[in-house]
Amino acid sequence: MPALSSIPPLALVAFGGAFGACMRYLVGRWTMMTLGIGLPYGTWTVNIVGGLAMGLLAGWLTRIDSGSETLRLLLGVGVLGGFTTFSAFSLDIVTMINRNEIGLAAAYAVSSVAGSVLALMAGVWLARA
């Protein structure tokens, strides 16, 4: 990975993140046009696809010898982070489960979802106050 490894890490993340965010937008638009607005199909799609992609990437990166950190930054942190942070969240939980930290994984999952929903509600309330 000589060409990519010379790029500063922040630039890798920024480039990948921009690409991932654009893909998330396009998936959202496509699902809205094809499936309607009844449910958040776009969000659901990127969360599921992003989780699968993060799993494939994590598994592949453990098998390659060189360039894995560069690819992790570009594809994992950048592209998939811009596409959906749910993929990184899912990887965190699976990592805890693999370390047999089941209680911690459950607490992290519940507190992350509940905490982010409550924080969003607080932000809306504060912005409207």
Automatic annotation (TrEMBL):
<protein>
    <recommendedName>
        <fullName>Fluoride-specific ion channel FluC</fullName>
    </recommendedName>
</protein>
<keyword id="KW-0406">Ion transport</keyword>
<keyword id="KW-0915">Sodium</keyword>
<keyword id="KW-1003">Cell membrane</keyword>
<keyword id="KW-0479">Metal-binding</keyword>
<keyword id="KW-0997">Cell inner membrane</keyword>
<keyword id="KW-0812">Transmembrane</keyword>
<feature type="transmembrane region" description="Helical">
    <location>
        <begin position="103"/>
        <end position="127"/>
    </location>
</feature>
<feature type="transmembrane region" description="Helical">
    <location>
        <begin position="44"/>
        <end position="61"/>
    </location>
</feature>
<keyword id="KW-0472">Membrane</keyword>
<feature type="binding site">
    <location>
        <position position="81"/>
    </location>
    <ligand>
        <name>Na(+)</name>
    </ligand>
</feature>
<dbReference type="Pfam" id="PF02537">
    <property type="entry name" value="CRCB"/>
</dbReference>
<feature type="binding site">
    <location>
        <position position="84"/>
    </location>
    <ligand>
        <name>Na(+)</name>
    </ligand>
</feature>
<feature type="transmembrane region" description="Helical">
    <location>
        <begin position="73"/>
        <end position="97"/>
    </location>
</feature>
<dbReference type="InterPro" id="IPR003691">
    <property type="entry name" value="FluC"/>
</dbReference>
<keyword id="KW-1133">Transmembrane helix</keyword>
<dbReference type="GO" id="GO:0005886">
    <property type="term" value="C:plasma membrane"/>
</dbReference>
<comment type="similarity">
    <text>Belongs to the fluoride channel Fluc/FEX (TC 1.A.43) family.</text>
</comment>
<comment type="function">
    <text>Fluoride-specific ion channel. Important for reducing fluoride concentration in the cell, thus reducing its toxicity.</text>
</comment>
<keyword id="KW-0407">Ion channel</keyword>
<dbReference type="GO" id="GO:0140114">
    <property type="term" value="P:cellular detoxification of fluoride"/>
</dbReference>
<dbReference type="GO" id="GO:0062054">
    <property type="term" value="F:fluoride channel activity"/>
</dbReference>
<keyword id="KW-0813">Transport</keyword>
<dbReference type="GO" id="GO:0046872">
    <property type="term" value="F:metal ion binding"/>
</dbReference>
